[in-house]
Amino acid sequence: MKTGKDLLTEGIEILCQNDKEAESLISPRFEEIISLLERYVKEIELFNAAYGLVAADNTNELITRHILDSIAPLGIIYRLLGEAQGRQIADAGSGAGLPGIPLAVTLPDCSFTLIERMGRRAGFLNNTKAVLGIGNIIVEESELEVLLRKKPENERFSLVTFRAFKPMEPKLLKTLFSACGKNGLIAAYKGKREKIEAEMLQLKNNRPQWEAIPYKAPFLDEQRHILIVKSE
To answer: Residue 68 contacts by C-beta under 8 Å, 6 or more apart in sequence?
Structure first.
């Protein structure tokens, strides 16, 4: 059986082969990125039983289903940041820091705000930030709605991303758009195209502009999409 480091290395090599933009971001720091993600995996495993951070039966499943999946659409995310005209990213309902921490590791020139309402999980995020020595992360222990009431409009986000978060519905969509700055985008990690279409059909009265971009997560044999939502 492959070690966690072997699986991470092979998975990221596959990602670089499949996406030249991702390769340009990862290759100059390849060993550093592997080392940081390996330490991140160990932190999750250390606290997972007590904090219920992720659903994973073993290290390989944690790496495949959570770590590699978080960075698999790296090239897409980077291109979206250009479209959104900014580098301020919010990870809503961050939980274990997914996808925020893997993205922050691979995009050191971007600023990430990890928003997590549960105190123990926010504590885990702050501890992991310190252990990994990541300087481009801010942890906010708060509900997104509460944080927005305290955050000036000129400090809103270029991109709001989330993973393993509840389905889109009008109230949530309004809150997420409130978190976006001018030309900001919502980027949601999703599965099958049919489920995305059904989910967005429920929002037809809100008339959001959306696009589901497929991506391939290494070693994960299932449909994965990034759902991009823009306000009209």
So the answer is: 8, 11, 12, 15, 217, 218, 219, 220
- CA torsion, ordered 47, 50, 52, 53, to nearest 10 deg: -20
Q: Could you tell me if 190 and 97 are in contact, meaning their C-beta atoms sit under 8 angstroms apart? A: no
Residue 215 has pLDDT above 90, yes or no: yes
User: What's the topology of domain 4-230?
Assistant: Rossmann fold (3.40.50)
- Whether the Cβ atoms of residue 16 and residue 26 lie closer than 8 Å to each other: yes
Task: Give per-residue pLDDT as tens, 50-69.
Answer: 999 999 999 999 999 999 99
- Please tell me whether the peptide bond between 167 and the residue prior to it is cis, using omega within 30 degrees of 0: no
CB atoms within 10 A of CB 103: 24
**Whole-number Å distance between alpha carbons of 191 and 203:** 18
Question: Where do the structural domains in the chain lie, given as residue ranges?
Answer: 4-230
Q: Which helix (H) or strand (E) holds 125?
A: helix 119-132
Q: 204 to each of 166, 177, 186, how far by Cα in Å?
A: 18, 16, 17
Q: Which of 216, 170, 184, 181 is nearest to 71 (CA)?
A: 216
Q: What is the pTM of this model?
A: 0.95
